[in-house]
Structure formats: C-alpha cells, structure tokens
Specification:
Blueprint lengths: L1 H30 L4 H12 L2 H12 L3 H26 L2 E2 L2 H24 L4 H23 L8 H11 L6 H6 L1 H34 L3 H13 L1 H12 L3 H26 L6 H23 L3 E2 L1 H18 L3
C-alpha cells in the first residue's frame, strides 16, 4: 500500500510538473514574440512528453535500463493499443489518408529504427544525436507543412499541441496573482522542480516495487510506468473523442509516438547512454513495431478506426500485458 502511494505521488508530481512547465514555457515564448505555431510544434508538443523524458533519463542514470527503455517502448505500445482503443470506443476516429501516410509512416519507421538499435547496436550518444536530428528535421518539415495546411490536413505534431491546449484548466492562483513574465517563470521553475522530484520518486519506487513483486524492472517499466507517464496523452485523447474531435485524438497518438522515439530516446541516449535490455530488444520492441503496423492497417479500413477496431486494439493490449507479466 505504501509503495502504491509513493508511485501515485510520483506520477502526480510528473503530470502536474509537466503541465506547469509547458504553460510557463509557452507564456515566456509568447512574450518573446515567437510564432504560436512554432511554440506548438516545439514547446507544447515536446514539453508534454517531459514526464517520459525525465523518467527515462533518471532511470538510465540510476542504472535501470529496463525502466528507461521500458518506459519508451511501453508508452508507444500503450498509445496505440490502449489510448487509441479507448478513444475509438468513445467515438469512431476519422482518418485523413495523407496524414496517416505522413505521420503513421514516420512513426512506423521510427519504431523500426529503435528496434534495429536494440538488436544490433546500443543506445549511445551517436544514436542519440541521430535521433534528435531526426526530430529537428521532423519539426522543420511539420512547421513548413502547417504554414500551408488547408482545412483539417494537419500533422500529428499540430494535433498533439491542439489536444493539450483543449484540456487546459484556468490559470493557477499564484500565477494569476503574479501575472506577466514573473508568473510564467514561476510556473516554469515550479514545473521543472516537480518533474525532477517526481521522476526520482517514480524510479526509486519502481525499482523497489520490482523487487517486492519479484519481477524484472523491464516489466514494471513496460506496464505500470509506461501507462502512468502516458496519462496526459490518455486524458487529452479521451477529451478529444468526447468532443467529437477524434481526428485530433489520432494525431495526438501518432505525434506522441514520434516524439517518444526521436525525442525521448534520443535525449536519453545523449544524456545517459544505456544498453537496450535483451528482453525488450527481442520481444517488446517487436510488439511496438507490430502495434505501429496494426495502426496503419486498421486505419486504412474505411479510413476510420471504429468501435470494433477499438475493441480489437484494447484486446491486443490486454493480451500483451498478460504475456509481459510472469505467471
């Protein structure tokens, strides 16, 4: 019970800290006159993944690659099978063919790259630089594409930022009281502090939990930690589905998967190089690739992800979790 409370506390700090960090950074960027579109594609889209980033970096620094890589791989699996499955059950997801080919294809390619790294290489600084360069290239491409986008032909990075903005609560009282740049800086610093503290609590608790349950750290990272750090994506996708903006829910999932591999894995490799655990490389990374491929197949059936397909995705996730946990 005590471990569960510590785990919950770490997740709450991560989620709240991530929100404060992004909101503060957005306000600062606005005061500096940076384009709202560029802010959305960078500060918001990448900032919403800070819980995954801090957790993976701290786990890698602590010598727990199973949690570090499990968080990334498990989050991508959960995004497709769990989060998109829930969203589709709430509201069938319409699919834009061009967006699917562009962002779904890149997500699948990124998953293949991470699989190849796990099988034939290691998550070192060279890989980290290459992945981050890939993210920069994607952001530049997305920025140029969004400037000429017409109608609903938005990319996944844009939808990820839109989904986050749609669930923003009113400003916190202290931020409202200070106002302006001081309030924005306060939110940024407070958010960063909460994320770092929450990440440390989460990693320490996950290691202790793995020992208490006599399971590997990989299992904890791939399931409990991955789902926990993906809660913001779950909330934003569910809200988008309930508002009948299911296309945004799909973009949020695709964008999160791209940023997780290119950004989170890239930054983790650059800051704290680590080995890819054999179990993840030879099984879970394959599941991640299969999930990315399944999304492409399911989305092409009538260019929508209906409730039946959503049920199939959830069933696949249940089967994956069952196979991951030891009997």
């Amino acid at each position: 019970m005590e471990l569960a409370l510590w785990l919950l506390g770490g997740l709450v700090m991560l989620v709240l800290g991530g929100e404060l960090l992004v909101r503060g950074a957005v306000q600062i960027a606005g005061r500096l006159g940076i384009s709202p579109l560029l802010v959305g594609l960078t500060v918001v889209a990448f900032g919403t993944s800070t819980p995954e980033l801090v957790t993976s970096v701290q786990a890698s620094l602590a010598g727990s690659p199973g949690i570090a890589l499990g968080n990334i791989v498990g989050s991508n699996i959960a995004n497709v099978l769990l989060i998109l499955g829930v969203a589709a059950l709430l509201c069938p997801v319409a699919v834009n063919s061009r967006a699917l080919a562009r962002d779904g294809g890149l997500g699948f390619l990124a998953a293949l790259v991470l699989l190849a790294v796990g099988l034939f290489w290691t998550l070192d600084r060279v890989v980290g630089v290459l992945l981050l360069l890939g993210l920069v290239g994607y952001i530049v491409f997305a920025f140029r594409q969004e400037r000429v986008a017409e109608g609903a032909d938005h990319g996944a990075a844009y939808d990820k930022a839109e989904a986050f903005a749609a669930v923003q609560p009113p400003a916190f009282p202290l931020s409202r009281a200070l106002g302006g740049l001081p309030g924005a800086i306060l939110q940024l610093v407070a958010g960063l502090g909460l994320i770092v503290a929450g990440g440390a609590v989460l990693v320490d608790t996950a290691v202790t939990l793995a020992r208490a349950l006599e399971v590997s750290e990989e299992v904890i990272g791939l399931t409990i930690i991955a789902v926990g750090t993906s809660l913001p994506e779950l909330v934003t996708s569910v809200v988008a589905a309930l508002r009948r903006q299911a296309d945004v829910a799909l973009g949020n999932v695709l964008g999160s998967n791209i940023y997780n591999i290119l950004g989170i894995a890239g930054a983790t490799a650059l800051i704290a190089p680590t080995e890819v655990p054999a179990g993840i490389a030879h099984f879970d990374a394959w599941v991640m690739v299969a999930a990315a491929l399944l999304l492409l197949v399911v989305a092409r059936t009538g260019w929508r992800v209906g409730r039946r397909e959503g049920g199939v995705l959830l069933a696949c996730y249940a089967a994956y979790v069952w196979s991951a946990w030891p009997a």
